[in-house]
């Protein structure tokens, strides 16, 4: 079971990191449009639509990655003081009551939304129209990935309730903990002030 959970974590991580490269493409797209508009005096009507679809794709495809890394918003004011079993109980209830119905509805509605767009070959309302149906296909795909990662998180909650501690996760980048960093380099605040 542990291998399966970590495999889903790796999948979510890989997809999240792969789609993170859209930031580079979007930066180039925006820079080119600024250059074209203000230097060459030749703006592109399709560029804003492409930017919006790129950002939407980036954020939707990062959902499962963010869930795998525990990065979604949580009320940590109280949650951090709870014992692991209490945390798992709270998480499990919230996953069942809110997460599962919401993500299933998102995925179902996204699939319908995509099918309708594909049937009419929907495109943007600009002089140079871009097809919208590939972008709308991202909604159910992102929903399925988020649902898969959510099921893994539910299994982790159940395991924590049984064992009393959280099972391991796939590791990735972490925020810098200044206190841990100081311990690693044997620094103190007095020495840093000099």
UniProtKB/TrEMBL annotation:
InterPro entries: DctQ (IPR055348), TRAP_DctQ (IPR007387). The chain crosses the membrane at residues 12-32, 52-71, 92-113, 133-152. It is found in: Cell inner membrane. The keyword Isomerase does not apply. Pfam families: DctQ. Its main location: membrane. Keywords: Cell inner membrane, Cell membrane, Membrane, Transmembrane, Transmembrane helix, Transport. Residues 27-159 form the Tripartite ATP-independent periplasmic transporters DctQ component domain. It is a multi-pass membrane protein. Part of the tripartite ATP-independent periplasmic (TRAP) transport system. The complex comprises the extracytoplasmic solute receptor protein and the two transmembrane proteins. Belongs to the TRAP transporter small permease family. This is TRAP transporter small permease protein.
């Amino acid at each position: 079971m542990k291998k399966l959970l970590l495999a889903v974590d790796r999948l979510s991580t890989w997809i999240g990191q792969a789609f993170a490269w859209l930031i580079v493409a979007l930066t180039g797209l925006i820079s080119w449009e600024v250059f074209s508009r203000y230097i060459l005096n030749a703006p592109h009507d399709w560029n804003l639509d492409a930017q919006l679809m790129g950002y939407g794709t980036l954020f939707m495809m990062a959902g499962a990655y963010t869930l795998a890394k525990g990065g979604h918003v949580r009320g940590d004011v109280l949650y951090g003081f709870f014992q692991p079993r209490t945390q798992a109980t709270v998480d499990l209830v919230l996953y069942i009551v809110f997460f599962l119905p919401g993500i299933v509805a998102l995925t179902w509605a996204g699939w319908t939304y995509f099918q309708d767009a594909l049937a009419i070959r929907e495109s943007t309302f600009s002089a140079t129209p871009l097809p919208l149906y590939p972008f709308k296909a991202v909604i159910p795909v992102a929903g399925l990935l988020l649902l898969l990662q959510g099921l893994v998180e539910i299994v982790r909650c159940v395991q924590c309730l049984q064992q009393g501690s959280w099972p391991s996760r796939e590791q990735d980048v972490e925020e810098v903990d200044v206190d841990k960093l100081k311990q690693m380099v044997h620094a103190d605040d007095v020495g840093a002030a000099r």
